[in-house]
Design goal:
This protein is an alpha+beta fold. Helix content is 21%, strand content 39%. The protein has one domain. It has two helices and five strands.
């Protein structure tokens, strides 16, 4: 049985910023532990001047779990290694 990990165990780290025309996106990796492994997904948060910390809106994008490692550090390192062009393709795939 596949279960969703507990939300309290999730950690988010900023890895980069992308600019597309007049839009700016902050790219983050969300990591969590499940059994003996760590998993991560990429989050794209549009930078909005009047947005509060931790506040989300309908422009935010989230990938499926794409990254896996033996530790949270491994997963964050993998996220940092994702080429900018791949991040852009993933962002565009959300429509």
């Amino acid at each position: 049985m596949v279960t969703e990990p507990v939300r309290d165990d999730r950690h988010t780290s900023s890895i980069r910023r992308l600019t597309e025309g007049r839009l700016r996106w902050r790219v983050l990796v969300e990591t969590w532990q499940d059994s003996d492994a760590y998993h991560g997904r990429l989050l794209f948060r549009r930078e909005v001047a009047d947005r509060g910390a931790g506040e989300r809106d309908d422009t935010d994008r989230e990938s499926a779990p794409l990254l896996h490692g033996h530790s949270r550090t491994d997963v964050v390192a993998l996220a940092h290694d994702v080429p900018e062009q791949r991040l852009r393709r993933l962002l565009y795939s959300f429509g």
